[in-house]
Batch of 2 targets.
Target 1
Amino acid sequence: MDDWLIDDERLSIERKSILPGEGFFYPESLEETEREREAAERLADAETVVIADTDADGLACVALLEAQFDDVSLLPASPHDLDRAIDWAAEYVDQGTRVFLCDLCPDAAEDIEALHTLVDRADSVRWFDHHQWEPDLADAVETAGVELTVGDSDEVCTADVALAELADDFDERFVDLAAVTRDHDLWIRDDPRSDDLADLAHWIEPDEYVDIVREHGADLPPEATELLAERRIEKDALIEKAVERAELREVGPWTVGVTYGRCSQNEVAEALREQGADAAVIVKPAGSASIRGTENFERAHEVAAQVNGGGHPKAAGCKPDIYDDMLDYAHHWTTRGAVAKQAIVDAFKRLDIEE
């Protein structure tokens, strides 16, 4: 396949909104080989390893740990490849390494099968999170020998948990960083800096983001704000496309806004809320989807759990298991996610409705 076919720079906003990014089209086998090589390099000789989600919350935890420990190595992970990150850590960390897992929640027992091996190799393993945990998975993690701390997902982000659990008198900028991160992660949005942190974490490399917030906290330097201003021109255009193609569906007692597109899901969800949606479903070109709730719908994690996902009562993610080959993805793009949308709407319908 010619590289120009997947070159984002040549696509119009309309087409970019419909298709996934370039990375989607690279075989996972090639990507995994490269990622494992990078993981082995990151983990070799590290005194402290942090397996963390690469959103602003997970990376704020990394910044806190770097402020406390001299030699910290980040192993980026996501909820969908948590098992792989734990496997690599169990294989490549040195004996006696401190290991932290931050802002990640296992979806199934298979995600944590290598924890026993990791605990045996590491000096200690601690896990900070604030998602909705299944009790049996929490028990399995603790039984493996991990010190698990899960905060209230309605009250704190994982950076709050790390700040409270780490034995250090942190500078005020780190306390502020956790508070601003919480403002976005819990979708409070009282502090305008919180959107800046979320966007910056999404648009630059994780290590670069950690360096910036470790030095500046939530008050970003001019070069970062300039980058944000430039990138938000396209971001706003993609949000507009997703909002334009949205539809409101009545599902049981709720009005659910459903749309499709490569976009920033939180802003799209907010726009749908303003149109009267109790919940929002944003299906992405790569096959995953975001589910956002409101004060009228706090069961997003229950919907996601039915379609290969999980999360919080008002914010969850999933990837319906409906893609068997590239023809399914072609159908997904040309129908603007019709099958995925229906699978998630059906999950809403299966919720028990309280009288």
Target 2
Amino acid sequence: MQTEALMKEQRDFFDTGKTLELSFRRAALNRLEKAVQTYEPELCRALQSDLGKSRAEAYMCEIGLTLSELHYMKRHLRSFARRRLIPTPLAQFHGTSFKVQEPYGAVLIMSPWNYPVLLTLEPLIGALAAGNCCVVKPSAYAPEVSHVLAKMIRETFPRGYVAAIEGGRKENESLLEQKFDYIFFTGGVKTGRIVMERASAHLTPVTLELGGKSPCIVDHTANLPLTARRLVFGKYLNCGQTCVAPDYVLAEKGIKEELLVCIKKEIRKQFGENPLENPAYGKIINRKHYDRILGLVDQEKLVYGGEHRESTLQIAPTVLDGVKAEDAVMQEEIFGPLLPILPVSSMEEAYRFVKDRPKPLALYLFTGEKRTEELFLKRLSFGGGCINDTIIHLATSAMGFGGVGESGMGSYHGRKSFETFSHEKSIVKKYTWLDLPLRYQPYDAVKEKLVRMFVK
């Protein structure tokens, strides 16, 4: 009943028409920006508590990117919301065609625990910019961040406009029973299926930002020291708990051993000889995931790392070599600091390996050959990615981010966020001083001839 009451508040607020005004939306974004800046110390402490994130990483990967998205959205809000004129067919003379963006109404944002600030607030920015009311459900797996976000939102917005619901499975179930106008979910494939199934009962449109096993492919033309540096950064950021982290490496046999040497060297350089003593190295979110990740380690294929500390839920950056497709570590998204390396004879073999598996959320290719770029960009379907780098394609508001197939549906960031939380309404405005009779009965040979001239 509490959830139903909240939904009524949100619908009543939306019906006032306040959110339709750009000035109101801009003011909301300004309030959110000020709130993030005010709560930055508390958010950093919560991220340290839940995930062991250092202050620098918390700002770089969460708070800073949130503020960047806010600035981008405020700067472009008027152009995103502007009515767009469209050419009108001659058969509809005399009229004007245009598109307008309208908010859906009351939307639900369900966010994950791995980047709990960024992946809660970034879609919220899009929802508010588009003129919606919003219910935000942070993940219970990051309880400290969830509590700070809920507190921040309560102090920033009236509940009928933006509300944050804390809790776990019970609260999720209650929310999914309601008829929202749009649902935006970020999380695992299994839960994504449930969200989509529940949304279908109300024919509610959804965006699903999921995950999967994102490959990293390295050929013989790659700059191996730089490849290792960027690969180690992307893989072990947030202890591998990143939806677009390189999940495994397909390396050409001729350079695999040298790449392995470079990766080991780079891990030591970035994290030290004992990463578990590095105060800037994070932890696994909870005991369940800690045990699951350790269960994927094949001791016979462990070539680097593997140290772990149960008391702090930490697992050191780990490398597995000689991995095969049928190994346990290749059967699920790792979502942890394990890097399996598989040898391939050619880029064609690497292409076929990825092609035969579900479409990944991200793909990373390290090569100096244009032909190899074209092979993977033109012939493989994946959400997005990088050539000669990892992760950074999602750190811009100028490009959309999203999955395809089992890795998700829909996208967001910048304009894409505004469009995701808007319905595009197509309008033709006909003028009344002229009314061509071609479309009206009775039809004859002359009308048919004229229709064939105009409609083709």
